[in-house]
Specification:
361 residues; alpha/beta; Aminopeptidase; Alpha-Beta Plaits; six-stranded mixed β-sheet; globular
Length: 361
């Protein structure tokens, strides 16, 4: 990773409205915050001792109220979308958010993208009405059972048309103390210098107090390794305005360039998505997710049954990259060969059940 970021490279596009949202922004500050947070993870392992190694390998930090489980561990080869939530007081479960972003790590394109969301933008919550993004975490934690992180992740996923794989909930006070502790450091590699190792006990204490995440230590290690290798021209910060979120077609057009899964796109498999429930809009939203990842969706529709609880895949051969990615994104574990003419129209058919709807909406 380069030591200084003087500007954000702007992709060539004739869409002036989209250009306006990618205005000059201090990348250094946001990357520095993200890097500081990840550094704390390694502080934990190095300062706790052998008896706690296994515990912190699988779950190094406390989890936030109303968290959600990720489908599988990130291997460092596929896309990873992380929800970044910053609150003033980490102990408060109802405090409004000070920052809400999505961090997209795309190893297939070698890209790092951070999307900053407008906190005052209102989204509709089932049975709760419209609420601004800054309050969704707190609203979810007022419910029984608490699901503040899950509700925020679903809202952001639906808004942007991307899956959310994990989260980092950080306290503003902790970030400020960590900045003061580390001093003026510009490069992520400098955080792991011999000089800074002496600060690890203090950094670990701050992490336990001000950080919540569902990522394992191995996943966070892979994230650091990936960030270290990203070229400067592959780093991008987007600051979205409310008008950008209202123009879904233009939003998807540009986000798909950033989160396109190169391997999935190169397989060029034809995909159809069928709704196996009575819940409207499920197949359409699933198709949006797949298209934003670079998949070719040739058809959406209803399955012959609308009472499915669990979804599944229909394909001739199992084990392909596209099939594995779709299974991960939609949380399906079963598959079978095509039987009907409808199922034979595509290389892969994704049939969604009620559990898929509950995961998305």
């Amino acid at each position: 990773m380069a030591r200084k970021y003087r500007r954000i490279r702007r992709p060539k596009t004739s869409d002036t409205s989209w250009k306006s949202l990618k205005r000059r922004f201090k990348i250094k500050k946001r990357l520095r915050r993200f890097s500081l947070t990840l550094l704390v993870v390694f502080s934990v392992l190095l300062t706790l001792g052998v008896l706690y190694v296994w515990h912190y390998f699988t779950r190094p930090f406390a989890r936030a109220a109303g968290t959600f489980e990720s489908g599988s561990s990130w291997t460092g080869t596929a896309l990873l979308n992380l929800l970044w939530l910053e609150v003033g007081e980490i102990g408060s479960e109802t405090e409004p958010l000070a920052n809400l972003s999505v961090i997209i790590l795309n190893p297939t394109l070698g890209r790092f993208t951070a999307i900053n969301l407008p906190l005052d933008y209102k989204v509709y919550l089932p049975s709760q009405g419209k609420h601004p993004l800054r309050t969704i975490y707190g609203v979810g934690n007022l419910l029984d059972p608490k699901h503040g992180i899950e509700l925020t992740a679903k809202s952001v996923s639906y808004l942007l048309g991307i899956p959310i794989d994990g989260y980092l909930l950080v306290g503003s006070e902790g970030l400020q103390q960590l900045n003061q502790l580390s001093g003026d450091i510009e490069n992520l590699k400098d955080y792991l210098s011999i000089k800074n190792i002496t600060l690890l006990p203090q950094a670990a204490a701050l992490g336990h107090k001000y950080l919540r995440t569902n990522l394992s230590l191995s996943e966070l290690g892979r994230i650091i390794y990936f960030i270290r290798g990203v070229r400067t021209d592959k780093i991008e910060i987007l600051i979205l305005d409310p008008k950008d979120l209202r123009d879904q077609d233009t939003l998807d057009q540009h986000l798909s360039l950033l989160m396109k899964d190169k391997i999935l796109a190169e397989e060029r498999l034809k995909i159809q998505i069928l709704n196996g429930t009575l819940k409207p809009g499920l197949a359409s939203f699933a198709a949006r997710l797949v298209r934003n990842m670079g998949g070719e969706v040739i058809r959406i529709g209803n399955y012959e049954r609308q009472d499915l609880t669990k979804g599944f895949l229909v394909l001739d051969e199992s084990g392909g990259y596209t099939a594995r990615r779709l299974a991960h994104v939609f949380g399906v574990v079963d598959s079978r060969s095509p039987k009907s003419t409808t199922e034979k129209r595509a290389d892969i058919t994704v049939i969604l059940g009620l559990e898929d709807y509950q995961k998305i909406f």
